[in-house]
Amino acid sequence: MTPEPTEKLVLSDEEWRARLTPEAYAVLRGHGTERAFTGCFVGTHEPGTYVCAGCANPLFRSGEKFESGTGWPSFTRPVAEGAVRERVDRSHGMIRTEVLCARCDGHLGHVFPDGPPPTGQRYCMNSAALRHVPE
């Protein structure tokens, strides 16, 4: 499943609150982080595609998911170039790379340069920001 070019999804705060669960809203719109090992996708391995819980933009394939031991679902790369965007995150006294949905700008998690081959990347995502679409 390769993402089709789509327009940005821009909604008001009220529309986002109506569309999302409180937990998904806190993560996607409030840049929150779920507690380690509490997300529903931490240990799952069913074939399919992980999409944005806010706008259904395809983000990651299950074949790129790996067990990082960090307590969050981790992937080696996005489903396609342009599926996500990255920006510098200087919150909490650290400098990290935040990962956002390219369609709705929802906060998904962070990417770190300590993943396995072939990319060496660890896209550490919040389960609350994702929805799994089975193959």
From TrEMBL:
The keyword Chloroplast does not apply. Its EC number is 1.8.4.12. Residues 13-135 form the MsrB domain. Binds 1 zinc ion per subunit. The zinc ion is important for the structural integrity of the protein. Zn(2+) binds at C52, C55, C101, C104. The active site is at C124 (nucleophile). Pfam families: SelR. It catalyses: L-methionyl-[protein] + [thioredoxin]-disulfide + H2O = L-methionyl-(R)-S-oxide-[protein] + [thioredoxin]-dithiol. Its cofactor is Zn(2+). Keywords: Metal-binding, Oxidoreductase, Zinc. PROSITE patterns: MSRB (PS51790). HAMAP family: MsrB (MF_01400). PANTHER family: METHIONINE SULFOXIDE REDUCTASE, METHIONINE-R-SULFOXIDE REDUCTASE B1. Belongs to the MsrB Met sulfoxide reductase family. This is Peptide methionine sulfoxide reductase MsrB.
